[in-house]
Amino acid sequence: MEKSVLGVEKRKSVAVPEPAIRRMPSYLTLLRQLRNDGLEYISAPRLAVHLDIDPTQVVKDLAYTGATGRPRIGYVVADLIEILEEFLGFNRKHEAFIIGVGFLGSALIQYQGFREAGMKIVAAFDTDKKKIGTDIAGVPVFDLAKFRDLAGRLHITIGIITTPAASAQQIADLMVGWGIKAIWNFAPVSLKVPSHVIVQNTHIYSNLAVILNKLEQLKKAE
Amino acid sequence: MEKSVLGVEKRKSVAVPEPAIRRMPSYLTLLRQLRNDGLEYISAPRLAVHLDIDPTQVVKDLAYTGATGRPRIGYVVADLIEILEEFLGFNRKHEAFIIGVGFLGSALIQYQGFREAGMKIVAAFDTDKKKIGTDIAGVPVFDLAKFRDLAGRLHITIGIITTPAASAQQIADLMVGWGIKAIWNFAPVSLKVPSHVIVQNTHIYSNLAVILNKLEQLKKAE
DNA sequence: ATTTAATAAAGAAAAATATCTTTATTAAAT
DNA sequence: ATTTAATAAAGATATTTTTCTTTATTAAAT
Predict the structure, then answer these.
(1) Is the CATH code 1.10.10.10 the one for domain A11-88?
(2) Does B147 touch chain A if contact means CB atoms closer than 8 Å?
(3) Which residues bind near strand C, taking a CB cut-off of 7 Å?
(4) Residue of higher predicted confidence among A5 and B171
(5) Residue A121 in contact with residue A94, Cβ under 8 Å?
(6) Could you give the 3-state DSSP secondary structure of residue B191?
(7) Which of B30, B51, B107 sits opposite A106 (nearest CB)?
(8) How far apart are alpha carbons A199 and A166 in whole angstroms?
(9) Residues carrying CATH 3.40.50.720, chain A
(10) For the purposes of burial, counting CB atoms within 10 Å of the CB of B166, is it exposed (0-12), middle (13-18) or buried (19 or more)?
(11) What residues of chain A, 77 to 106, have a C-beta less than 8 Å from chain B?
(12) Which of A116, A184, A187, B31 is in Cβ range 3.0-4.6 Å of A168 for a Cys bridge?
């Protein structure tokens, strides 16, 4: 934990390890399920068995959220859910734009699960005349060309890119110009953006590469 | 590097770090683009700038594939592409089943990009009568019920799960029974499978959690 | 031919992450 | 009331991954 000269914790010290953040939604999903099953308390070791991870890791991850459990009992399921939702921001509203209304884009627009995380896609953009003017699950599809020179800053913070790889960078530039603060990129490219803009990549090929590599190792081990 | 009693390297020693595997498709995508732009040679430092990662990391990642470059010149783009494709298995054929023909399932079935990686979804399964009997982009949708007791082992190695979370585990059990070797799970649950079966999770919430967390940190830093 | 600068490659160090160990707590059993 | 066993929490260790450093190579410039 980094300390400043005066001994006061720096803001940076709030940072929670990314792997821990990535695990938290799994805890939340499992806990919601356990709550629906009527469970009141759950211990870290039991959560660990469910999720097949190290028990102490569960304790540490949960400690980051400020949750405290009681020995011999564990955590109060309902409380832990609330704490996690609050910590992850899943109980707040997050509005997003999506650019690229292909198969993946449509799927994300229609994905009901985002509601569980407070995220709402409020508008979609594309260059395809056939798609412009339609709406997908209530989300209107606009002509990207008309929004190129969008004046003024928007209150939308998240931009989702589901365009082909070739146009992803220029879309990212556009989003930066719009004042988007975080870009969720599904196109298989690395985007160049100013340092104050967050980029989160979801590269489908990376996952596939890991699968194929493990399969290959399995073959070799035979 | 683990050694056996006799000092001979164990098979396990072939293992390449997963983070390196995850980065490799990015190299491949970029290299294909550079090749299309007519570039013949590329050095690791230049690749590093493109991808915004450490130059030595690029060298090390590429070294895992067996690729060798020349000082002052770099790597031969065309050769490197081939080496990476071979290493990742993207130049071989990988057939897969998908279970769950919702928005995400349909999107994956229609996703042309999988061809770039040699993966082909050959059949889809669902329990929805409306979907059964149809086909999506040439991929037939079968009644899952009819395949429950599929006799004998299949030559299909990869099973993709895009069902709701609630049914994911039973689908995984089914796939294990079919002799599927690797499961690519998009449902937000941890699957319990025998140790010889590979599970790769693509949890959309994890990515979202990271984005929201970074946004939160950004806010705090203001 | 010699020098120079860019680079691959190998090795060392640092940072991040996960796992293991110990201690203190506390509900339940005795 | 006392003991026991399960557990959270804190700390230490180990592992993994990344970054830094050094060395050797080689194409291009002199």
Answers:
(1) yes
(2) no
(3) A 17-20, 53-54, 56-57, 60, 70-73; B 43-46, 55-56, 59-60, 62-63, 67-75
(4) B171
(5) no
(6) coil
(7) B107
(8) 17
(9) 94-206
(10) exposed
(11) 88-90, 94, 103-104, 106
(12) A187
Average pLDDT taken over every residue of chain B = 91
| Residues of B with Cβ-Cβ distance to A16 under 8 angstroms | 213
Q: Tell whether the model's pLDDT for residue A12 goes beyond 50.
A: no
Handedness of CA A18, B220, A183, B211 (dihedral sign): positive
Placement of tokens 């003017």 in the chain: A133
- Interface check for A219 against chain B (CB to CB < 8 A): the answer is no
Sequence ranges of chain A with CATH classification 1.10.10.10: 11-88
> Quick check: B161 and B168 in contact, CB under 8 A?
yes
- Closest residue in B to A36 (Cα–Cα): B166
* CATH superfamily of the B94-206 domain: NAD(P)-binding Rossmann-like Domain (3.40.50.720)
Nearest residue on chain B to A185, alpha-carbon basis: B207
Chosen CATH of B16-88 out of 1.10.10.10, 3.30.470.30, 3.30.450.20, 3.90.550.10: 1.10.10.10
**What pLDDT, in 10s, does the model give residues A41-79?**
999 999 999 999 999 999 999 999 999 999 999 999 999
The one-letter code for the residue type at B13 is S
Contacts A–B by Cβ distance under 8 A: 184
% of chain A with per-residue pLDDT over 70: 92
